Amino acid sequence: MLQEVDFSSFEALEFLLIAGAVLILAYLALEHKEIVYSAFFFGFMASFVAGFFLLLEAPFIAGMQIAVYTGGISALIIFASLLLPRAQDSSLEKFATPEKRRFGLLMAALVVVLSGVLAFIFPWAESFNESFIEISNDLNELAIWLWADNGIFVQMIALIMITSLVGAVALLKMDKAEQLATVRGEFGVEAEPTLDEPESEMEEGPPMEEQEVDG
Amino acid sequence: MVPLSWYLVLSFMLIGLGAYGMMVKRNLIRILIGAEIMGNGVNVALVAMSLYSPVFTFTGQGLIILIISVAAAHTALALVLMLMYNRRYDSVDLGKPIEMEGP
Fold first, then answer.
1. Would you state the pLDDT for residue A215?
2. Closest approach of chain A CAs to the CA of B101, in angstroms?
């Protein structure tokens, strides 16, 4: 009974279902009013994209997609939306001008059309003959490609990652130091007014130099 | 097997949606989400073209591993830049500096 079923149609059905879910979730991630829900929709969209990688016989990439995009990046976006209360301001969801929206839509359509021209009209697209596909699902070969043949690129990426993370921490520290410099006094950063010393009392008294002159 | 053109069309739609989000939205977090959606579209196109290429190689999959790693790093950096922007302008509106400085 099962031998009579055309499994290729199942694959097409799977593709259509996943594609519909991905497109709807991507639209909701961009257009939902609540930014936290948008981040959740983005996470779901990323996990559905992993379904495409499973269809394309790339299970390692699917696992990595779920681990990094769904587990890491969407969590980072949720943190960002919770750390920035202004991000939930509903006035930001209104378009500045209708012309700007039309211009954005036009540019997005241009990006899609140019990508399509590159993919379908250029002559190299004919070299993708779908009847000669050899699927190799060997993770050992992937590891050899990644670590033995192209190990230098992996090291470069690692260097880029650590530079960006160290740079991010340094940027935050510099920004904080700039803010503290405005309140830095004789005793360093501890010169900020405390609860015991209200600011009003400090402002009421005359400056030290004037007191000495009067005396 | 699903034809390559289906994957390419889907990836272009994702790239277009991401481009729309990046060009139209004012909220920095939504712009970041748009950039990530574009990245996902590119990833799907790369893996599909790698599988459907005349000689199968792991170039596409290896590139995707590197791209996903860089995406994680750039998202962390974008989060820090958003925090700095919020401290400076007290908003995550991309048009805030133009409003403050005037035309």
1. 43
2. 17
